[in-house]
Amino acid sequence: MPEPRIPPGQSVSKRFPRLDLGVIPTVVPDKWDLRVAGSVENPLRFNLPEFHALPKVSVTRDFSCVTGWTRLDCVWEGVAFQTLAAMAKPKPSATSVWIECGEGYTTSLRLEDLMRDDVLLAYGFDGKPLPDEHGGPVRLIVPRKYGWKSAKWVRLLDFRDRHDLGFWEVRGYSDTADPWTEDRYS
Ligand SMILES: Nc1nc2c(c(=O)[nH]1)N[C@H]1C(S)=C(S)[C@@H](COP(=O)(O)O)O[C@H]1N2
Ligand SMILES: [Mo]
What we know:
Helices cover 9% and strands 32% of the residues. By secondary structure, it is mainly beta. A hairpin with a 5-residue loop joins strand 2 and strand 3. The radius of gyration is 16 Å and the shape is globular.
């Protein structure tokens, strides 16, 4: 059998639905920053112009939410996670990254899952600046995981020597979150 295009139990959405806790954080561009901290040799802090000046990548991937929709061929533009990791230099003890967002949402990922070459901190979507409701100015995109790992409005990437569970993961959603195995709940 050929591989199906979308994961089991999903259906294609032409629109790009919005899914979050209902709050869009107010971003004052002068005050916005993105910090990379924790178990790294080189902690980093970027304001928006500095972040936009980093090497840019474009990644086209499908996006699947656990509630059942998949949007095909999302075109994301931004900074590869690998680029940030190379600058920050994780300590050998770092195994996980804790992610904090502007409105209080959190998630976390194993470092090995973030080091895939399709993971990025996106500021562009389908050829335009990433809209506020989809996580602008900067969001994480982890195409191989269900959408709740793709944190919107990211402000902090905290490298850790232990793995802590984020907002949905402590509420019963899977920590591994693989759409292809319908790995929805823990
Ligand atoms: N900060 C933040 N990021 C978040 C969420 C959230 O509530 N807050 N929801 C997640 C979920 S469950 C999904 S499916 C995707 C949806 O992204 P979208 O609203 O751009 O479609 O964002 C994820 N990232
Ligand atoms: Mo979701």
